[in-house]
Amino acid sequence: MSTQPHVVSHSFAETTASVTQDMPYIPLDHNCSGMPEGWTVYVHPRGWIYFRNDEYNVVTDEDIRNPAVFFRIDNYCHEGVSKPPDGMEVYLLGTSDPSFNLLVDHKQCMAVYGKEDTKAEKTISNVLRSRLLYWGFLKRHPVHVPITKGAYSEAVDAIKFYYFENLTHGLRSIAPFSKVECEDLLRLLDAGKVQFSDISPVTTTLVAWVLQEIYSFRRADTYGHLTYSQLNQVREASVRPLQKNIRLPLFLDLIMTLVINGLLFGIPKTYLEHVKNASVFHDRLSSLQESWEKYYEQLTREYSDFILVSTVLLSATVSMLSAVDISQTSQTCAILSALSSLGSITIGVFLVWRHQRNIHSRTSTFAYIHNARNNFFGLTGYAVLLSIPVVLLVWSLIAFIAAIVAYTLQNLTDGSQEGVAAWVIVGIFAVIFACVMAGLYSSTVMWRWQSDLWFMQYIRRLFR
Q1: Distance in angstroms (rounded) separating the CA atoms of residues 115 and 253
Q2: Three-class SS of residue 335?
Q3: DSSP string covering 205-274
Q4: Are the C-beta atoms of 51 and 40 separated by less than 8 Å?
Q5: Is the pTM of the predicted complex or chain greater than 0.85?
Q6: Average pLDDT, the chain
Q7: pLDDT tens digits, residue range 275-325?
Q8: Alpha carbon of 22 to those of 8, 16, 25, 28, 223: distances in Å?
Q9: What is each CA distance from 279 to 70, 179, 300, in whole angstroms?
Q10: DSSP string covering 438-457, please?
Q11: Fewer CB near the terminus (10 Å): N or C of the chain?
């Protein structure tokens, strides 16, 4: 008995005598030529093969072309397996114990291990598990059983709902497919273009994979168990930031607070807020990665703007240093401004390069998140690092202003016309400085809810 199959299909064997000049298409997805009697070999779209016995409705992945394997499976079919009813088959998992074999019911789209009755009353958990097993089986064995119209519609309807959830919840959605993935799947599964009478194994594989992912998600999401309010509570509890509660020693925490609010002008607080928002985990790694990728893009745009401003400020500072009659104080402030601008440009360019290089790398993204939240100072220290370019830019601007003021004040000691002009410039500078500080304060506090500070309340009472 030959056990080596030839790649010849039924249709080809039956029509060989009538082949004309128009050669018919030769399907390679199944054949029984050269196989033991009653067995057919099927070729998965990915290229692997599996075998099915039509008499006993048995499917196996073991290579029955091996005589020893075929002898064992053939004996098992004759002695250990009773033929399942129509619409059902047994998937042999390579063991002689029937309890480890999978009983597949194509009518109900369910599969169970052993001899459990798939028609018996089940809980929602058992149904979800049986459907998950079934679609996993069909994904690996799609050639001999086409997908049904009902299963196809279920897959399309589920994807449409997940698309709607992505639209309404955005990055907070925990759907198993992202918005882009839903769009691609709906385009592939366009029901208007599908002829269910001639469904292909590739389409069956795709739909089976989609439904396997759907039922896997439903099992994890307590599908069909909780009420609306209970499910919302569970999902809200699962939304959590990826930040550890790192508690620094009291003196280090005090020093960090003074540095952030003093030397760094409170700028790291803004970056810390953005980092926390990007670190919220919604039970889907793809959403977390997408959130961080958007944050990377925002950072690179900000750093590019800071680099441009620092470059212009550096050029102005160098021009000021070329003045002949500049005082020592002005010169010192201008040099400090130039050094701060150079530092801002250098760090900004490096951060833009590193973020752009790794923005779409999933491995680098998760390593980045892990290192950001697991350093000694936690996300606060990471926010301080991100704020260095803009902090240096602010210090450069302050030093440049100080250099201009010092250059102006060096003529105030005499009563010449230059001294009068210097006083006028100082007065104008004071007005501009007050307007700038008022604008900075207003633009800072207007973005968040807060009560008036004590001195603002006092000023408001004075004018009532």
Answers
A1: 64
A2: helix
A3: HHHHHHHHHHHHHHHHTTTTTS-HHHHHHHHHHH-EES-------HHHHHHHHHIIIIITTTHHHHHHHH
A4: yes
A5: no
A6: 78
A7: 777 776 655 666 677 777 788 888 889 999 999 999 999 999 998 888 878
A8: 18, 12, 9, 18, 54
A9: 55, 20, 18
A10: HHHHHHHHTTS--PPPHHHH
A11: C
